[in-house]
Amino acid sequence: LLQALANQMAVALENVRLFDAEREQRQLAEALRGAAATLSATLDVDAVLDRLLDQIAPVVPFDSGNVMLLDTSTGRIRVVRQRGYEQFGEQVAREIAGLSFEIASTPNLQHMAETGLPHIVPDTATDPDWVKVEASANVRSWAGAPIVAEGQVLAFFSLDKIEPNFYRPEHGQWLAAFAAQAARPVWVAARPS
Fold this sequence. Notes:
Blueprint lengths: L1 H40 L3 H12 L7 E8 L4 E8 L6 H8 L2 E3 L4 H9 L3 E3 L19 E9 L2 E10 L7 H22 L3
Antiparallel strand pairs: 1-2, 1-6, 2-3, 4-5, 5-6
Helix pairs in contact: 1-2, 1-5, 2-5
């Protein structure tokens, strides 16, 4: 009797896991459809990036997040769009809006620039490579993905959670799907006229 109950419990738990996985995939598909609609609705890259940040949230939740654009001539990135930093105070929001990093001295960005792959920092407090800045003192878990077009990294999505160990590898994969959607409009906007 105990063995039969254990078997039924195992089947029930597997069904719950499969249901959750199917729900996550459906949510991702719906968000990517919305992203495709966004891209066809406007050519304004700022509007596209704002809408993509809005559409990412249900699939890859974040407390705060931004898009950073790369200046290939200097190797520096700067924040061009942001969400959620106001909850930490107007000063934090202003500081984030003015942030600029040299990719070569920022390991998580350098990793993404070199590999073209998303990157997760489960706990910023224990990661020896995490670059600490006062404006992001609340960040404990981080997910990022490069926006790549024509084989060139143009920008990065950067998402923050205040709880440690929130982001998992699948969050990086889902974020990369949004980055792929953003690649074309960012590439068009970044090209010299």
